[in-house]
Specification:
- The protein is 17% helix and 34% strand.
- It is built from three helices and ten strands.
- β5 and β6 form a beta hairpin.
- By secondary structure, the chain is an alpha+beta fold.
- The longest helix has 12 residues.
Length: 186
Amino acid sequence: TMLPGGFSLAHRLDKDTSGALLIAKNEETLEFLRKQFQERTVGKEYLCLVEGEIKKRGTIETLLGRSPQDRRKQKVFLPGEPGAEGKREAKTEYRVKKNYLDYTFLEVTPRTGRKHQIRVHMQHLGHPIAGDRLYGFKNQRIPEGLTRQFLHANSLSFALPNGKRASVESLLPEELKLVLAKLATS
């Protein structure tokens, strides 16, 4: 996507997801960064708040593809399941940062870069992201003060043309910190 001033996005974030985003100043840099995303050499860390209690770290490995019931959504397919042919592998790792009453704050590392991957994987686990209107459960409760899905791209690490690695970090926005602060006192 071309931005004002001739800059281009090297990747995308879902609508209503905040956080770190890589922008290229020229075509050469854009291709250099996009190749790393395609080869899965960009390190990505997200922070999210999910419904329910998760006690320990884990990994979710499934196939992902467009939902036949709702074209806006992605769907988990398991190998051998009808409709799974041609679907793409997706792998997400997660670690518990803090448990709250009825919610868990997670650090999530997507090892692949599929559309809506973290959101659909958390739903598949039975713990949709708080405030997610597309993948949340019917009648799901939303924490006080949350006006969007609680998903934030916390950091990205990538190679520079000189071979060294660089990383960028985006601190959790104040609006999301306030949601956690209110949960801590409830």
